[in-house]
Amino acid sequence: MQYKIFSKRATVIVGTDGAMLNSLKMDGREYLWQGDEEHWSGQAPVCFPIVGVLPNNQGTAFGKPCSMKRHGVARISPFAVDERHKNSITFVQNSDDNTRSMYPFDYQLRIKYTVVDATVTTEYIVTNTGDEDMPFAIGGHPAFNCPINEGEAFEDYKVVFDRVMTKRVLRPDHHTGIVDAQARYDALDNTDTINLVHDLFGEKDAMIFDNIESKQATLIGPKGNGVRIEYQDMANLLVWSACNQADFVALEPWTGISSCTDEPSRLERKRGITVLAPDETVSFKFKITMI
């Protein structure tokens, strides 16, 4: 089921299926990728309790076996509406027998969307409802139309950071999703701008800006339309588009990253993992502003 929240400027549609964004509209423009089977049927899945992959979808967490496909269990498990207002909505998911068969911990995940003016804030609120420490990572995966306006091309767009970027990026293996932590690639050469071309992606997959110092990135087109994403609570940002010249760019703020070649298969030992004590709650936010 889908629900609409809105401000004076923007209309946002979110759904109980994955508790994810389905539409971001302002001034008659659709900013969010609407999905297709040729390139990518997703739109903005929630990644929890892993971001990316485990090796062969298998691992352990404090000695317990885990078996999760890419991006974890939240996106494929039911959510319910917890609160609903004119400009905000909160979804909730509680662990159950199905989630525990993949991720053997008890949790509550609340996802709150709030729209004010042209900005949508996503807040993830995670509570450990069990009686033992719980390791996890969490992240967003919103994809945006690129181009946004008719008559524009993908190559007319760029991603601009709020500071000059000098660190080389990591990239996951396109087939396995595993990151070679010793291999880094040039994406920006002492500049703040990625000029988009389809060849940046494909077999090279996403660009992973790990432990990123920049906390704001803007996807912007020739007419000045685009989206700005702010991710102060997140340590990493991924920039991704699909193969076959897909007309979208995903800007993905994550607390962790996909499994790396130099890590053990133990979830609690992976990069960016948060460990919650019993009854502890933590929240992470990021903002999307339509331009």
Short structural description:
The protein is mainly β and 291 residues long.
Provide a descriptive summary of the structure in words.
There is one protein chain. This protein has 291 residues and is an all-beta fold. It is built from 1 helix and 23 strands. The strands form 6 sheets. The protein has a 9-stranded antiparallel beta sheet, with no helix packed on it. A hairpin with a 4-residue loop joins strand 2 (10-15) and strand 3 (20-26). The chain is globular and about 55 Å long.
Secondary structure: elements and pairs:
Elements: E1 2-6, E2 10-15, E3 20-26, E4 29-30, E5 46-47, E6 58-61, E7 64-67, E8 80-84, E9 88-94, H1 97-102, E10 107-116, E11 119-128, E12 134-136, E13 139-140, E14 143-145, E15 158-165, E16 191-195, E17 207-209, E18 216-220, E19 226-230, E20 236-240, E21 248-254, E22 274-276, E23 281-290
Proportion of residues in helical segments:
under 10%
Q: N-to-C SSE series?
A: EEEEEEEEEHEEEEEEEEEEEEEE
Name the beta content range: 35-45%
Question: What average pLDDT do the residues reach?
Answer: 96
Query: Number of helical segments?
Result: 1
Oligomer description: single chain
* Sheet with the most strands: spatial strand order: 8-9-10-11-23-19-18-15-16
The profile of the biggest β sheet is: 9 strands, antiparallel
Task: Give the tally of β-strands.
Answer: 23
Q: Which structural category do the helix and sheet elements fall into?
A: mainly beta
Global shape = globular
Ends apart, CA distance between termini: 28 Å
Rounded to the nearest angstrom, the radius of gyration is 18 Å
Catalogue the unreliable spans: none
